[in-house]
């Protein structure tokens, strides 16, 4: 575990992809500084959440275009910043009691996308100069390089004023999202009573001082009328919708994997017996033993899980992590390779396989796999670090400098990114795709300084 491709307008040049992709990844949230925010990138968790979300997203007409990502933050919140991602705080995931409650949150956020609320909020953001006053240098860089007005909203949320402007939805929008979200749920055969349960979690928080409220309440203001309307809608479907065991499985699996790597391992071992699925119990135990540096028990449990689900790519990915983290680099390669074979389009599995090849000394093979991973998801800092290392080992210094520049840009370190991008630009063939990517970073960094 570390802490799809973006939909880009056809008219946009390919070398703009990297900077546009930053818009969806660099998240600046609520009351904490942006640099303290990170995503939990784990292929098993992301796949599981996508399985939970898919019925709702399909009912919303969004299909597979929206990805669910987890923010490494224990507060309760969920939000959207663009039309391709729904962000769920780790704290919100942990608070949800079942798949239906999580689907209710996802349905509500999907409604904001489907109903065009994001586009209207972005249109109301104001000038780039006001964003610069909030320290949104990276947002300005993206806006300058791509001409994308949405980029101006990338960093909003780090300051309370920005939070009020960008994340505080109107009550009319919230009521609209409630109605649409509930309809998406029923169309997907999900009990809308779960939406009522989510509302009840936050009831009464509006009476608290703002500093004591959960972020979700500040960005999703509740009213008694909204709750009553949702209760009335849910009552009309009471007893008419069957359970959804598949969604429950994936919800429990996502939650168990997240707990396994974010809570104390001994705590997890005490609680693991409450997990109703044997393969998930074994996976959670394997992760706990890994964190306790007990490789033998970690491998024993993950192998037992694989025996139950021999075609599960993500169990093989965890086995690869166990071997890699315990410095069994050569042994990790076939485990990661199997994961990549079973999930050939999963960028995180490919990145893990590439990392294993690199640490095992198979640099040329690593480069091919890492570039395949990058083509699917260029927002992975470790992947870019590995690419830089692999290119350097192969003597391709221009490409190595470009990977470093892109990694720094991804982290918002535009000054450092510019230094390495200039170096890459001088070494790469003029006019090549890689050269254009380097030049874009240089231009973005310069324009950010002048705003």
From TrEMBL:
Keyword terms, alphabetized: Hydrolase, Metal-binding, Metalloprotease, Protease, TPR repeat, Zinc
Superkingdom of source: Bacteria
CC terms in the record's Gene Ontology section: membrane
Necessary cofactors: Zn(2+)
MF-aspect GO terms: metal ion binding; metalloendopeptidase activity
Example GO BP: proteolysis involved in protein catabolic process
Domain Peptidase M48 span(s) in chain numbering: 47-232
Gene3D superfamilies given in the database record: Metalloproteases ('zincins'), catalytic domain (3.30.2010.10), Tetratricopeptide repeat domain (1.25.40.10)
Cross-referenced Pfam families: Peptidase_M48, TPR_19
InterPro entries per record: Mito/Outer_Membr_Metalloprot, Peptidase_M48, TPR-like_helical_dom_sf, TPR_rpt
Spans of repeat TPR: 313-346
Matching PANTHER family: METALLOENDOPEPTIDASE OMA1, METALLOENDOPEPTIDASE OMA1, MITOCHONDRIAL
Protein name, per record: TPR repeat-containing protein YfgC
């Amino acid at each position: 575990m570390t802490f799809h491709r973006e939909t880009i307008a056809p008219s946009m040049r390919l070398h703009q992809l990297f900077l546009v992709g930053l818009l969806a990844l660099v998240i600046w949230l609520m009351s904490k500084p942006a640099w303290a925010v990170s995503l939990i990138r784990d292929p098993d968790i992301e796949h599981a959440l996508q399985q939970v979300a898919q019925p709702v997203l399909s009912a919303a007409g969004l299909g597979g275009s929206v990805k669910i990502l987890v923010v490494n933050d224990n507060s309760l919140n969920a939000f959207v910043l663009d039309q391709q991602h729904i962000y769920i705080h780790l704290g919100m995931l942990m608070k949800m009691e079942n798949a239906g409650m999580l689907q209710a949150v996802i349905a509500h956020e999907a409604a904001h996308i489907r109903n065009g609320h994001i586009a209207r909020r972005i249109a109301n953001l104001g000038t780039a100069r006001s964003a610069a006053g909030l320290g949104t240098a990276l947002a300005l860089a993206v806006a300058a390089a791509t001409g994308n007005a949405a980029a101006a909203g990338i960093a909003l949320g780090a300051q309370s004023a920005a939070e009020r402007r960008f994340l505080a939805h109107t009550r009319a929008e919230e009521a609209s999202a409630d109605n649409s979200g509930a309809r998406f749920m029923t169309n997907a055969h999900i009990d809308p009573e779960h939406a009522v349960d989510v509302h009840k979690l936050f009831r009464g928080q509006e009476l608290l001082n703002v500093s004591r409220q959960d972020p979700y309440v500040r960005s999703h203001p509740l009213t008694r009328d909204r709750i009553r309307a949702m209760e009335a809608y849910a009552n009309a479907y009471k007893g008419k919708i069957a359970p959804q065991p598949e969604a429950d499985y994936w919800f429990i699996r996502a939650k168990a994997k997240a707990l396994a790597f974010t809570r104390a391992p001994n705590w997890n071992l005490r609680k693991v017996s409450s997990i109703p699925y044997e393969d998930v119990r074994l996976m959670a135990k394997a992760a706990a033993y890994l964190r306790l540096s007990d490789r033998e028990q970690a491998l024993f449990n993950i192998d037992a899980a694989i025996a139950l689900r021999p075609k599960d790519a993500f169990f093989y990915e965890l086995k690869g992590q166990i071997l890699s983290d315990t410095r069994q680099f050569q042994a990790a390669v076939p485990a990661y390779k199997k994961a990549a074979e079973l999930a050939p389009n999963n960028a995180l599995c490919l990145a893990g396989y590439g990392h294993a090849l690199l640490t095992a000394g198979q640099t040329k093979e690593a480069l091919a796999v890492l570039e395949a991973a990058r083509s699917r998801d260029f927002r992975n800092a470790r992947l870019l670090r590995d690419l830089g290392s692999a290119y350097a080992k192969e003597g391709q210094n221009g490409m190595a400098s470009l990977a470093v520049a892109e990694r720094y840009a991804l982290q918002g370190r535009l000054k450092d990114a510019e230094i390495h991008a200039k170096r890459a630009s001088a070494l790469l063939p003029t006019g090549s795709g890689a050269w254009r990517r380097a030049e874009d970073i240089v231009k973005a960094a310069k324009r950010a300084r002048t705003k």
